[in-house]
């Protein structure tokens, strides 16, 4: 600060302001980690309190949402494994329902779900009989190591395992051939019907051969293409009875003996919402809001857990673990959601591109757990339904019930469905353990899935998941925290859920671009943390400021990266030697920062490699991705559309060699240009 006799004052100002920015952001980042809080669910205590001696249970009702769009970008095998793991989880079968949202309206997904429901009739009793983990068949059959046998029939296990694996291979083959079978069937039906009906020439036909598919056709036509098709709802598996139903004994047609196993399956519903030209369908957030309305009319569970199509239940106790925190007598009533960390399969052993992001999940979110709770990160999260309806948490509710209702709910806030509005009081009752029979008609269910239903309402604003921001997950979590709700971070062993991550650098960069661009959008929107009211904890506000402004650092960091270019222009600048006091100051500061980093690794239970990978990929992000995120915000501020965010594609891979080959498949994209320039400048200098 005392040496202002620089021959380039603009450079001096960038340096000073940059150091100030780095110092302040680092300090704010540390403040939010001063009270890390590790929460461990006690599932045995939950069983003691809620499981009944006769085999019944007082556990609350639960709705499970799973979303997918494209069977190519999100392979069917991953999606159906996720469904199977959910159907087989260790939760009372009559107390949860699964809602599968196919946002592409594809017949492949519809018939794939039928095949999964058919296979589940054997897979789910097998899991219960032998207590296998994990309960996604693809992960289970290819696991290298398994724990000790915990089932009830050890002598039958090897034969059952062999038969079940053969049945799974047959299921996979049928799943792989589904697209070709539908195409061949449709061509045959079109030839048979095309003579009489010209409009049938390109139709896609269902398995009965006499019914046209209402959703997207293989050869798109008016009213049957992506972005334009009617709503479809089909209950694949009905609500099971309350009493156990034992399976079939072994026979020549059915070699597996399930005569001592409960063979019931939970409710399973297929949903494809209506899409029409001229409407912004709001991608995943819009699909989940439709699931929220449909599930309220059918099962109306007080708790909801959501999954992406490539995530599966890795620990069958995960649902019970989240319920532990929701029913916690200390602060469970004020908990809006329980967030589990994201863990991934198919990542290279050294996690080269920091897919696990353990510094964020196991350090940052653990620190937030001691304040108001972690942010919502998109998948593997259990919600309290009424929190999504914009209700106040108990500690912030007015004493007068009428005043509480008037303060939050406005006319036409939820739409015109009286059945949906009438379902809201029951959704607030977390002690309700018996599902209410659905009394709504097909017309009302169809109306809840239409594009026009949300016109003039608060859906996507103050109700449900938030619209018009790329990171709708973080913004939705912020809206709940801003209302006064808290959240809980729950990490358990084995991991609750696992998914598939992009190990290709190009796909990973696009993923980081969507996150960073969405974070800046949030800061410059009405959801800016600086504008939140007093219900948001001061340290939680600081955390959200960090989460929404971190891409701004790219300007100063890139300037530092490019400073060596001065050595390429001799005589232009005079670089003075650092005086001893400053050199000592720099050494102490760097040593202190690194020491604090090591301490953080220690209490978060991380490894040095996790920290190194996080630092490495941060450098890649600040040079290649964050500048594009800044450009996106600049364009948006000028009224221009901005950068188009690409959804992350997941590829179906075979063995380890084939899987990791994608690691080295670098596809050239403009995002890599700044990084290459920085490298070239430093090498040349």
TrEMBL record:
A Gene Ontology biological process term: cell wall organization
UniProt-annotated location(s): Golgi apparatus membrane
Residues that coordinate or bind Mn(2+): 284, 308
Keywords noted in UniProt: Cell wall biogenesis/degradation, Glycosyltransferase, Golgi apparatus, Membrane, Transferase, Transmembrane, Transmembrane helix
Gene Ontology CC annotations of this record: Golgi membrane
Listed Pfam families: Cellulose_synt
GO molecular function: cellulose synthase (UDP-forming) activity
Regions that span the bilayer: 12-28, 542-562, 582-605, 617-635
Catalytic residues of the enzyme: 103, 473
Annotated residues for binding of UDP-alpha-D-glucose: 74, 103, 283
This protein's name: Uncharacterized protein
Membrane topology: Multi-pass membrane protein
